[in-house]
TrEMBL record:
Pfam families: Usp (PF00582). PANTHER family: STRESS RESPONSE PROTEIN NHAX, UNIVERSAL STRESS PROTEIN UP12. InterPro entries: Rossmann-like_a/b/a_fold, Universal_stress_UspA, UspA. Belongs to the universal stress protein A family. It comes from the Bacteria. It comes from Geodermatophilus africanus. Residues 4-149 form the UspA domain. This is Nucleotide-binding universal stress protein, UspA family.
Length: 152
């Protein structure tokens, strides 16, 4: 089996997601792979009710970045963490959309061969009953998925 060439990792800026970014950065660095860091966000034009509705969506684990500036800051910080962990070539992407759909779309567009996510949401009752980002992408991804243990 050859090493991974393109690794995609999702982040929402939480410490949990940054643990997954650091692991993805170390792995990408060890493989000499390109690392694509993705933050899905809602447009800032979304009114307060729309933002609340998105945060209440099942499977999102209650956190969705709102606005391009916070999303840009999120991927910039994540890129710094990934480089410190060993990543060489890093691409930052802030994309309007839901986390699951965005990650799967970026995996396809980037021709990635590995998707890295944290396990946040897998251990919650809501995550077990309704779904979570890691569970949904693992079930739907066409490439390998690494679920990093980022929460207790």
């Amino acid at each position: 089996m050859s090493a991974y060439r393109t690794v995609v990792v999702g982040t929402d800026g939480s410490e949990s997601s940054l643990r997954a970014v650091r692991r993805a950065g170390a792995l990408a660095g060890a493989c000499g792979a390109r690392l694509v860091i993705v933050c899905a966000y809602l447009p800032s034009r979304a009114d307060e009710r729309e933002a609340r509705r998105a945060q209440d969506q099942p499977g999102e684990d209650g956190y969705q970045v709102v606005g391009s500036a916070p999303a840009d800051d999120t991927v910039r910080q994540a890129a710094e963490e990934a480089v410190a962990a060993g990543a060489g070539e890093v691409e930052e992407m802030a994309v309007v959309g839901s986390p699951v759909e965005t990650l799967l779309d970026v995996v396809t567009r980037a021709q990635a061969d590995l998707l890295v996510v944290g396990n946040r949401g897998l251990s919650s009752l809501k995550g077990r009953l309704i779904g979570s980002v890691p569970a949904d992408v693992t079930r739907r991804s066409s490439v390998d998925v690494l679920v990093v243990h980022t929460t207790g």
